TrEMBL record:
Domain OBG-type G: 65-290
Ranges in coiled-coil conformation: none
Pfam families per UniProt: MMR_HSR1, MMR_HSR1_Xtn, TGS
Domain TGS positions: 290-366
Protein name, UniProt field: Developmentally-regulated G-protein 3
Keyword list, A-Z: GTP-binding, Nucleotide-binding
Domain of life: Eukaryota
């Protein structure tokens, strides 16, 4: 472990000393690829000994979505969890109160959202310090991350936490890079781009590929990609997660300071202790999770508006809906009747590939 960490430090030092220009782009690309490989090595838990991930970290995923609270110690994550879910997570004014991962559940608009209070993150978590590996590997399973910041502490904490999460392959409020990477049997590295390129050239692409022992591949860019983007695609294990910056303890700052914070993107001001703007935070979590509520309608009865079936925005066809109710339902599926914004007329008869919209009503007609 120490040798890997030393190698990481040596590469980071070399990158810090290297001037960024066209002549050094190829060298920096190579260093970034080496760094990504070392981080992966460091953060993939070994199966030999070591007692696993530690108590409280293997939290079973429950509900319709999972939201993780990440932040430095004593920023008010436990208070926020207590107020939002009614789950008790120990609160104290000293640092490192929460040493295991505490789950709670919020029921909001018919959806059950699991909220995890992850132990206070410290600098160097991405390099295996503290309990960083467990914290961030649990954060990787979340559908949305809340970075909790203390309004009276420096805003630089935001950047430090982002750096830790990015080092672990979590990309916040970003889309996957629009580039195609395809390995092939022969023909060397073929590099094409549909846009003007300012960061990557053939030499840099070849250097990064050779670090991964890839000598034959087609690389196609559809935007001005960086070496980091190419490494992300080759690594293939990156998680793209929506993130909200929850600035807590706003009762301790002035209105002028609050207005400055208000200019931050993806930001939500709260006071967990005084329960200020918790409704606004829940509304924002709902928006970022982008869930779809579908109501069921049994034959000859009114729709059940109390208990919707919750689908993700990426998987919301009638087939996905059937699968959420029961995996055998598709075997008996004949067609569905849909009322709502996805239907052209009310009701519309549809097949299993029909895409549903939020608050549609669905009746499944089975084969006789």
């Amino acid at each position: 472990m120490a040798t890997v960490m030393q190698k990481i430090k040596d590469i980071e030092d070399e990158m810090a000393k290297t001037q960024k220009n066209k002549a050094t782009a190829h060298h920096l690309g190579l260093l970034k690829a080496k760094l990504a490989k070392l981080r992966r090595e460091l953060l993939t838990p070994t199966t030999k000994g070591g007692g696993g991930a530690g108590e409280g970290f293997d939290v079973t995923k429950s509900g319709d979505a999972r939201v993780g609270l990440v932040g430095f110690p004593s920023v008010g994550k436990s208070t926020l969890l207590n107020k939002l879910t009614g789950t008790f997570s120990e609160v104290a004014s000293y640092e490192f109160t929460t040493l295991t991962c505490i789950p709670g559940v919020i029921t909001y608009r018919g959806a059950k959202i699991q909220l995890l209070d992850l132990p206070g993150i410290i600098e160097g978590a991405k390099d295996g310090k503290g309990r960083g590996r467990q914290v961030i590997s649990t954060a990787r399973t979340c559908n949305c991350i809340l970075i909790v910041l203390d309004a009276i502490k420096p805003i630089t904490h935001k950047r430090l936490i982002e750096k830790e999460l990015e080092g672990f392959g979590i990309r916040l409020n970003k889309e996957p890079p629009n580039l195609t990477f395809r390995k092939k049997e022969k023909g060397g590295i073929n590099f094409t781009s549909t846009v003007a390129n300012t960061h990557l050239d053939l030499e840099t692409v070849k250097a990064i590929c050779s670090e991964y022992k890839i000598h034959n591949a087609d690389v196609t860019l559809r935007f001005d990609a960086t070496a980091d983007d190419l490494i992300d695609v080759i690594e293939g294990s990156r998680i793209y997660t929506p993130c909200i910056y929850v600035v807590n303890k706003i009762d301790q700052i002035t209105l002028e300071e609050l207005e400055i914070l208000d200019k931050l993107p993806h930001y939500c001001p709260v006071s967990a202790h005084l329960e200020w703007n918790l409704d606004g935070l829940l509304e924002m979590i709902w928006e970022y999770l982008n869930l779809t509520r579908i109501y069921t309608k049994p034959k000859g009865m009114n729709p059940d508006y109390e208990d919707p079936v919750i689908l993700s925005s990426k998987r919301k066809t009638v087939e996905d809906f059937c699968f959420r109710i029961h995996k055998d339902m598709l075997k008996q599926f004949k067609y569905a009747l849909v009322w709502g914004s996805s239907a052209k007329h009310k009701p519309q008869r549809v097949g299993k590939e029909h895409e549903l919209e939020d608050e549609d009503v669905v009746q499944i007609i089975k084969k006789v």
